[in-house]
Amino acid sequence: MTRDGNKALLDHKADGRTVLLFGLTLVGDAALTTDYLWGVGCGWALESSAWLADEVGPVLTQPAPSAADVDRALQRYARRHHHELAAHHFFIADLAGGRMLNPLERLMFAAAAHDERLASNLAHYGGRVITPWQFLSPAKVARSLRVQTAASRATRATTAATR
Ligand SMILES: Cc1cc2nc3c(=O)[nH]c(=O)nc-3n(C[C@H](O)[C@H](O)[C@H](O)COP(=O)(O)OP(=O)(O)OC[C@H]3O[C@@H](n4cnc5c(N)ncnc54)[C@H](O)[C@@H]3O)c2cc1C
């Protein structure tokens, strides 16, 4: 994808479109279009449909659902959509501009190569099973610092021993 292509995606500000007026809502790409490099779009389309069904289904199967109940269900769906996807979308869109990894990202990715728990944390983040905030929790950042410091020391010691 070209930088211009990424820019077009970044310009596609769609994450505020989960709830519209008059009982109308959106799922999938219609609600949120994200850089497809990360392969999340199909999963998010299915998940957002499931969240909508979870919230609206029980209301619509009532004998006489009111419009207010339907709207409240749509609001719950919108909140869930935002909670689950907004931060992931933010970080994906931020990276789509072609910037370099920042020091925190470099630390988390490098440390994951030396530690099974951090590798699992990274895999869960990449699989969008956890939020970016869970991925970057203070405990995980502290562990990454410890692991990466130890790995750097070990590399320096090995280099010195082989001279
Ligand atoms: C090049 C590319 C590569 C991608 N790679 C991946 C990947 O590897 N993994 C991944 O998870 N996602 C990937 N995606 C994203 C993924 O394709 C989308 O996120 C996903 O298809 C969204 O599903 P959707 O049902 O919301 O929308 P769509 O799949 O776009 O479905 C919308 C449907 O509505 C139809 N439609 C539109 N207007 C009307 C109308 N007026 N009346 C009737 N029908 C209408 C369209 O024809 C279409 O069939 C990729 C996208 C692109 C463009």
Strand content: under 5%
Structural class: mainly alpha
H/E series: HHHHHHHH
Give the N-terminus to C-terminus distance in angstroms: 44 Å
List the uncertain runs.
1-10
Query: How many beta-strand elements?
Result: 0
- The tally of helices reads 8
Q: Roughly what is the average pLDDT, rounded to an integer? A: 88
Helix content: 55-70%
What characteristic shape results from the CA principal axes?
elongated
Which molecules are bound in this entry? flavin-adenine dinucleotide
**Radius of gyration, whole Å:** 21 Å
Our count of domains comes out at 2
Short description:
With 163 residues, this protein is an all-alpha fold. The protein is built from 8 helices and no strands. Helix 3 (41-60) runs antiparallel to helix 4 (67-96), helix 5 (103-112) packs across helix 6 and helix 5 (103-112) crosses helix 8.
Task: Write a structural description.
- The protein has 163 residues and is an all-alpha fold.
- The chain has 2 domains: 3-96, no CATH class; 103-161.
- The chain is built from 8 helices and no strands.
- The chain has helices spanning 3-11, 28-31, 41-60, 67-96, 103-112, 116-126, 132-135, 138-161.
- Helix 3 (41-60) packs antiparallel against helix 4 (67-96), helix 5 packs across helix 6 and helix 5 crosses helix 8 (138-161).
- The model is unreliable at 1-10 (pLDDT under 50).
